[in-house]
Design brief:
The chain is about 50% helix and about 10% strand. The chain contains seven helices and four strands.
């Protein structure tokens, strides 16, 4: 595992007592690939959210790490929709989300704040993944789905950004969309 990591960070070294691990590249996997305690890591949230809904649809319990991500997505929904967000339609939410993302990305790009543009893109894609994964018709259903997905403390399969996983260890780790 350390030899694999050394391709990116050559100075990293294994602890003397570290056990030998393996790295396997998978072209595809099915839902039976995942076992209790497995972790899926990705650089961005949106692919994790999409995978979480696919796993849940196949009766594989999934937990996305990061209550703050859920809080941020809910705050964005409420900011976009205003006070009467609970009764609003998802179609209206999507329209407002598209306008917001387009404007924010344009402003960030002009200012050469590319990290900000990437953050907006990730929020936009994450919220669309929640909407798509739930098939929600009303905004209150989207809020409930966010609470459920990010509010769980555990599930057989954990999904996390690489950032949130720093310093943690697991026996089996999968990287989702490693090209990111």
């Amino acid at each position: 595992v350390v030899a694999e990591a050394q391709q990116i960070v050559p100075r990293i070294e294994a602890a003397e007592e570290a056990i030998e691990g393996t790295v396997t590249r998978m072209q595809a996997y099915d839902w039976s690939t995942f076992h209790e305690g497995d972790v899926v890591l990705c650089r961005n949230n949106a692919p994790l959210i999409k995978l979480a809904f696919r796993l849940i649809k196949h009766q594989v319990g999934a937990h996305v790490v990061g209550r703050d991500i859920g809080v941020g997505l809910k705050a964005l929904v409420k900011r976009l929709m205003g006070r009467n967000y609970k009764d609003a339609s998802v179609t209206d939410l999507i329209d407002r989300l598209e306008t917001w993302a387009s404007n924010e990305i344009e402003i960030a790009t002009i200012a050469k704040h590319f990290g900000k543009a990437e953050s907006v893109t990730n929020k936009h894609e994450s919220l669309l993944a929640v909407i798509d994964g739930t098939g929600a018709q009303h905004v209150d259903e989207v809020i409930a789905a966010i609470d459920d997905l990010f509010g769980r403390d555990s599930a057989p399969t954990t999904l996390s950004t690489i950032h949130k996983a720093k310093g943690l260890e697991w026996d089996r780790v999968f990287f989702l969309e490693p090209e990111l």
